[in-house]
Specification:
heterodimer, A: about 375 residues, 14 strands, globular, B: about 375 residues, alpha/beta, Rossmann fold, 2 domains, about 10% strand, thiamine pyrophosphate (chain B), Pyruvate dehydrogenase (Acetyl-transferring) E1 component subunit alpha (chain B), PdhA/BkdA (chain B), magnesium ion binding (chain B), THDP-binding (chain B)
């Protein structure tokens, strides 16, 4: 057991993959002698040579397009996009080719490519350096999408991604690069690829998070405990393939679910998770599934990012809306009688009539 | 101040001022630069035969769109010499990266014509085995395949396979960023790749003058340090000679080459397009006179290399190819909708399994309703 940062864990994973498989190649912008702007590829060119880890010209579509051809030729490219928003020039290559070539060739050509993308905010980055871009990738069939939250998970998920027969978009939470935790790489302790992990057990609410939001979710769970709410935290880990089973089982027990993500909320991963939970757990829910997310604005500047990012307080405020104090709808009570149901119906009809009358008066 | 002459290195990279040519439009010979060798008589006869077959395939495919057997077909009529030369210049270990307009080149490389037309027939996959044939799926998003060819060329170099990748691209495609990134990457990586631009003068409706202000598209190579050549694309001996030299230079020199062929798209963009809206008949007539098959025929006839027997055999073979294609394309195929889930990933995700089961149930219900209606 050694203390290791996520950056070191990722570097170790790349080293071990390069050592074990000659087909693995690492390339991108500044990943050579510099070791990448975040030093994830530190020392790889020195230790494995320029043939295995090299700098490319500065063109992201070119990097991913090159990886497609190399993978067709039998290699397993691991490419780095320097920052989330800088990956956008590569989007056509990713969406039209990386994601589709297996299908377009009826399974005859696989593309075992890993596209590493440092993503999300919380590091005081200037514009175009802090986007949470997972929504674009999870919406693209043919891609697997992964985002680790701990150093140990980062190591194994990256090893899994490189060994995977399909292309993987590997999203690295920038703000967690330097977070240290105890890591034991001698035996695999983490869940397989495609499975979520319950990182904190609880009884009253299931709080779903991934990547940069996992530590925030854990803090919020601690704080909620003081208020008497027992929160179960799930680290979703792999967004595609999505683990419905772990989530459904958890919400089945807690009856409440909150999803937290850094990304803007509209049309995002959190919306998908909320939809999936209510589709599967509707009759077990005591409250609506709620989302905690960034706002629907371009990522704000360093001086304002604290106002945007979902923090502990925003999560706790959301817990307040989980209807812990509501009187249940009598229709859902096991001993509901015809009399109470009729009373409820009458009350509802009266309310509707009042509203109609008021509306008429306004017009 | 004296103007400094361009260095030898720069001159090596620049294309010749005029396209390389062996044959004038009437089939008479003209002088080509010394570095290019007129292909052997056998190769030229082979090129002739392949062009006749390719043209017949192309005509048949267009006809199949009218019968509803193909969803769409982008014809390469007029670009026959480029299509055939691309197939002939490559060795077995080399890879071809075609666009949607390069079906004739694929047929000429030996892929079953029905497989070549699978996608255009309305199926969901490319139809042939890209690995067995060393031909990438025909690419629809413009110029994206040029990067794949570069990556493949670099992969072949790394594996010591002595192979070359040849990327086909059109004049419109040279405006795409991926074309430029590919040239740059290939030059920096010294990837053995040939970029073959078939400049057919139109990107759907947009004429070359609105596409590029370069003296010729071949001049796009110099900025990236890529050796470039321009060639008369309707002169089979010239295209074959230039492309073969480019492929062999890429192979032995381990560096990319850009070849621009000046040709013309005789038909509309596809059967769904109306070319009369953007070009006049006079222009088309001018290019009809430059037909690559007629030009080579005139040359071979003048040199007594081509006789009626060879012509008749080629035409009979072409008719047999067309008849076989018609017969096999007239058979209805029903792609299995459930297979749509099978190759999204190596293993379907749990969600895809659920969706597959859902569609299977929908199809079964449809079938049951259908048979019930029949019984009723």
């Amino acid at each position: 057991m050694t203390a290791m940062t996520m950056a070191q864990a990722l570097n170790t994973a790349l080293r071990d993959a390069l050592k074990e498989d000659d087909r693995v190649l690492v390339f991108g912008e500044d990943v050579g002698p510099l070791g990448g702007v975040f030093r994830i590829t530190d020392g790889l060119t020195r230790d494995f040579g320029e043939e295995r880890c090299f700098d490319t010209p500065l063109a992201e579509s070119g990097i991913v397009g090159l990886a497609v051809g190399m993978a067709m030729g039998g290699f397993r490219p691991v490419v780095e996009m320097q920052f989330d928003a800088f990956a956008f020039p590569a989007f056509e290559q990713i969406a039209s080719h990386v994601a589709k070539l297996r299908n377009r060739t009826r399974g005859r050509l696989a593309l075992p490519i890993v596209i590493r993308i440092p993503y999300a905010g919380g590091i005081g980055g200037v514009e175009h350096h802090c986007d949470s871009s997972e929504g674009y990738y999870v919406h693209t069939p043919g891609l697997k999408v992964v985002t680790p939250a701990t150093a140990e998970d980062a190591y194994w998920l990256l090893r899994d991604a490189i060994a995977d027969p399909d292309p993987v978009v590997f999203l690295e939470p920038k703000k967690l690069y330097w977070s240290k935790s105890d890591v034991d790489l001698s035996t695999r302790r983490v869940k397989p690829f495609g499975r979520a992990e319950i990182v904190r057990p609880g009884r009253d609410v299931t709080l779903v998070a991934y990547g940069p939001s996992v530590p925030v979710a854990l803090q919020a769970a601690e704080a909620a405990e003081q208020d008497g709410i027992s929160v179960e935290v799930i680290d979703q880990r792999t967004l595609v393939p999505f683990d419905d089973a772990t989530l459904t089982e958890s919400v089945g027990r807690t009856g409440r679910c909150v999803v937290v993500q850094e990304a803007q909320g509209f049309g995002g991963m959190g919306a998908e998770i909320a939809a999936r939970v209510q589709e599967r757990c509707f009759h077990l829910l005591h409250a609506p599934v709620l989302r905690v997310s960034g706002f629907d604005i371009p990522y704000p500047p360093p001086k304002l990012e604290h106002a945007h990012l979902p923090g502990v307080d925003r999560i706790l405020d959301t817990f307040d809306r989980l209807q812990f104090d509501d009187v249940p709808d009598p229709r859902h009570l096991a001993d509901a009688t015809t009399a109470t149901l009729t009373a409820t119906a009458t009350a509802t009809a009266a309310m509707a009539a009042t509203m109609t009358a008021q509306k008429g008066a306004t017009v | 101040m004296a103007v400094k002459a361009p260095s030898r290195k720069i001159l090596d990279l620049l294309p010749s001022a005029d396209p390389v040519r062996f044959l004038a439009e009437d089939g008479s010979t003209v002088t080509a630069p010394d570095e290019y060798v007129l292909p052997s008589d056998e190769l030229l006869l082979e090129g002739y035969r392949r062009m006749v077959l390719g043209r017949r395939f192309d005509t048949q495919a267009t006809a199949l769109t009218k019968q509803g057997r193909l969803a769409v077909y982008p014809s390469s009529r007029g670009q026959d010499a480029c299509q055939i030369a691309a197939a002939m210049a490559l060795q077995e270990q080399d890879w071809l990266f075609p666009t949607y307009r390069d079906s004739v080149a694929l047929v000429s490389r030996g892929i079953d014509p029905v497989e070549v037309l699978t996608l255009l027939r309305g199926d969901w996959h490319c139809g042939y085995d890209p690995v067995a044939r060393r031909v990438a799926p025909q690419c629809t998003p413009l110029a994206t395949q040029v990067l794949h060819a570069t990556g493949m060329a670099d992969a072949l170099r790394r594996k010591g396979e002595n192979g070359v990748a040849l990327a086909l691209v059109g004049d419109g495609g040279t405006s795409e960023g991926d074309f430029h990134e590919a040239l740059n990457f290939a030059a920096v990586l010294r990837a053995p790749v040939v970029f073959f631009v078939q400049n057919n003068k139109y990107a759907i409706s947009v004429p070359l003058a609105r596409q590029s202000a370069a003296p010729a598209l071949a001049y796009k190579g110099i900025g990236y340090g890529v050796r470039s050549v321009q060639v008369d694309g309707n002169d089979l001996p010239a295209v074959l000679s230039v492309l073969t030299a480019a492929v062999e230079h890429a192979r032995s020199g381990r560096e990319p080459v850009l070849v621009e062929a000046h040709t013309y798209r005789m038909d509309a963009h596809t059967n769904a397009d109306d070319a009369t809206r953007y070009r006049d008949e006079q222009e088309v007539e001018h290019w009809r006179a430059a037909d690559p098959i007629e030009r080579l025929t005139a040359y071979l006839r003048a040199r007594n290399l081509l006789n009626d027997e060879i012509v008749n055999t080629a035409q009979a073979d072409a008719e047999a190819l067309a008849a076989d294609l018609r017969a096999r394309m007239n058979a209805d195929t029903v792609p299995d909708p459930l297979e749509l889930f099978d190759h999204v990933y190596a293993e379907p995700t749990p969600q895809l399994r659920e969706q597959r089961a859902q569609l299977a149930a929908e199809l079964a219900a449809e079938l049951a309703a259908g048979s019930q209606a029949q019984e009723g």
